[in-house]
Amino acid sequence: MLRTWFLLTLAYGIGFCIAVPSVVIYVLISEGRIPKDFSAVFGVYLFFYILSLFAMWALSALSQESEFFYRIWSRLSFFKRALLSHGIMILISGVIVALITIKSFSDLFLAIGSLALFTSPVVLGLVIANWLMHATAGLSQFKRKVMVKERPPKTLDFAEYGKWVVVGQDYAIDTIQRVLAANTKLADRGDPRRNSILASFLFVGPTGVGKTETAKALASWLRQDGYDFIRIDANQFATEETVWTLLGSPKGYIGSETPGLLPAAISQNPKQVILIDEIEKADQRLYQAMLQLLDEGYVIERSTGYAYYLSRAIVIFTSNLENKRIAEIMETLSDPIEIDIAVRKILESAVIEFSPYRSFKITPEFLGRIDAVVPFRSLGFEDLVQIAYRELRRLGENVDIDFARALTQKYYPIAKEYGVRYFLKKITEDVLSQ
């Protein structure tokens, strides 16, 4: 509302500045004199300015009461809203003037036409204000793009980028930046503690809150440093045969002539961000291979026995184990040390039973090799509003934040129950089905 007030004030101010010389020219031509008193012009413009502000407020309030009108109003730009409000005020004022001084029906059109002509500079003011609004928004966006493109290839600035990409997970982003900054310095100094991989993380917390998106954001940020991104969905590697596809089949077995997907990718570029999604669903062989990677910093290609080293790699695991309990911790605790201790204790005691013959447990050895367990919190209502607004703009919808807030209110229960992905799917269906 503050932006609307400012732009409307600017538009009427510009209109008044244009109207004054127009009145001077008109009086000079028609009466041969230069007017010195412009209080009447100022009074008319002030009157219409106040009425237009009231109209904008009234139409906005009406949109909150009617869903049909809200869908129309929320899709209008500032220029169209202001023009509509100004037009309504001219019609109402014209009717009032005509009723007071009416002699014939044509007086109504004459009154409306006269008011429209007299205040027509406001339309130009609205055009200029609307142009300035888009120009400054475009400049801000241009600066952001330039800043992202021209940032030096350092992991120290990931926090700024990560918080821009991922909504509502500042704690997680700050934790990642802190570990990356420290480990990068150790690796640059040749510290023997960083002879394996550059960093390792375990992302935990509720499903659909940004764990995978954070990993993608980190990979995107590091692409300027020459990093590639490997995503491994652990549920696709839940058997011995599928793990061989990933790591390579032992010599003499079928498929041993084909290198494993992971060693093949590493051989092309050892600088990798490796994401293992839902590690608890992986076969035990993959789990053991990842332990070796965390401990020694290499992966063995089974068919050749060759070791592929990843001294500058970043490995990220995600897990949905005990996600509700972890979400509760994030809501009740604020101290980073207390959060870390509480989350690790929960994970150490967590066991998931897939069948009587297969279960998964995060071992102390695994947690001991992880640089940081990164808990993600549940997203709040305003976080979801921002996410919905971004998605609507990405779809090309010309909507404002209030429209996104209304849709979020409608589908908020779905977001809390099923996560952001399904929430965005329902919003997309709602908007595109209209």
TrEMBL record:
Domain AAA+ ATPase: residue ranges: 197-353
Membrane-spanning intervals of the chain: 7-29, 41-62, 83-102, 108-133
UniProtKB keywords: ATP-binding, Hydrolase, Membrane, Nucleotide-binding, Protease, Transmembrane, Transmembrane helix
Molecular function GO labels: ATP binding; ATP hydrolysis activity; peptidase activity
Gene Ontology CC entries for this record: cytoplasm
UniProt key word Magnesium: no
A biological process term (GO) from this entry: cellular response to heat
InterPro entries: AAA+_ATPase (IPR003593), ATPase_AAA_core (IPR003959), ClpA/B (IPR001270), ClpA_ClpB (IPR050130), P-loop_NTPase (IPR027417)
SUPFAM superfamilies linked: P-loop containing nucleoside triphosphate hydrolases (SSF52540)
PANTHER family (UniProt xref): ATP-DEPENDENT CLP PROTEASE, HEAT SHOCK PROTEIN 104
The protein's name in its UniProt record: ATP-dependent Clp protease ATP-binding subunit
